[in-house]
Prior knowledge:
Distance between the termini: 66 Å
Low-confidence stretches: none
Oligomer: single chain
Helix content: 25-40%
Number of strands: 22
Structural class: alpha/beta
Bound molecules: nicotinamide-adenine-dinucleotide
Amino acid sequence: MTQYPSLHMIIDGERVSGGGRRAHAVVNPATGETIGELPLAEAADLDRALETAAKGFRIWRKSSPQQRAAVLQGAARLMLERKEELARIATLEEGKTLGEARIEVMMNVGLFEFYAGEVFRIYGRALVRPAGMRSTVMHEPVGPVAAFAPWNFPIGNPGRKLGAPIAAGCSVILKAAEETPASALGVLQCLLDAGLPKEVAQAVFGVPSEVSSHLLGSPVIRKLSFTGSTVVGKHLARLATDNMLRTTMELGGHGPVLVFADANIDRTLDTVVAQKYRNAGQVCVSPTRFIVEESVFDRFRDGFVERARAIKAGNGLDADVQMGPMANPRRPEAMDRLIGDASSRGAKLHLGGERIGNAGYFYAPSVLSEIPLDAEIMNEEPFGPVALINPFRGEEAMVAEANRLPYGLAAYAWTDSTARQRRLADEIETGMLGLNTAMIGGADSPFGGVKWSGHGAEDGPEGVLACMVLKAVHEG
Ligand code: NAD
């Protein structure tokens, strides 16, 4: 049985406890018990991290691709060796099932391996010029990165935030969520143990608004990378503008799922129901608004409810559990509020709509249908285990509903018509589109949104280039 580790920050390679004046209680969401005390940064800790990051950038911008690849490969190997330990820590902190946490570790291993190869493919351009003249366009690392990772993927989010800057030759200060610090520290430790110079990557925790204003206001930082809600993202983007920082913003979504009558409905249901309740719905690309062609609406809704009813919720450490608790007390409160509002406006509640048990933050798999479009839940990201199923008539109305909101992160469509698939690929405003699949990510594929879901991409070659700037050099 994995013990929950003692908590600290990592600044200039040292374990730092922030003077011990302020701490955040880390809670196991399956039990509600406090499992750790996380020291929070004071201004002096952040200044030290900034000074170290400036030094780290001077070191790492000169590193060879071989050196960066060796660190990323080594970290991937160590993560694989430490897979069980990391997964158990993630489950203890965040609540997701052990199976989901293991997959998260493996996805991060894959990302570090991909980046280890990508460092050799950061090509520039040689421009066509008359003989004797030469012009080249080069990619250079942008500089020290301030990266903010949320709690819902306690391993994957810090892995993305650390991996891309390190592959690009930047230094990085990571502020992962205070709810899930040990997972983030575990990822960073793999990189440090694989030979990453201690100045290059650090981990701080604190009062989020204090840390972000301190770091983003510093002339040392050259890029902001943030994953979290659109509200906080907009606030941080404003701070970043004052310092003219590059930004990668991975924000909220409200995933539309278009289901057409010509789709294989059973196959669609088998896939989307499992995806809906993954991590208790606390996934930015979660399928959320089910936009179902009228003629198959009853069948789809009934099949959905039947499958959702069979999901076993419980402590993520238990072997046969399919859905863990929500990650913090804010989420069940939000579920009660959003489902209550929808019901009061006439939506039909078919399943759930209530908490489970008295301990921890469990919420029942929930299904609503025929929800008025002005209900809060049809406009605000629910980020929880609730499916919203509405009937629509015809492709045009379905696409209009998919594009109705200011979000555009992930969208899905299920149809057997190839011609329709092409039209949807053109028409749906989204950063990622799954056609007859829920698999919309991959280490080699850009992950990110449009509209209020943010800009810039993580993963893929684009994830590394997002941590680089261009320089054109002209020789006469
Ligand atoms: P929140 O908006 O308070 O926080 C979201 C994240 O931003 C957290 O990790 C938090 O530590 C961080 N944060 C908050 N204020 C900050 C600040 N001033 N500076 C720097 N970081 C700051 O919300 P929450 O209760 O943690 O989560 C609720 C909502 O956030 C969800 O409904 C969902 O929309 C969104 N969310 C999105 C993702 C994602 O993957 N895109 C992940 C987690 C949460």
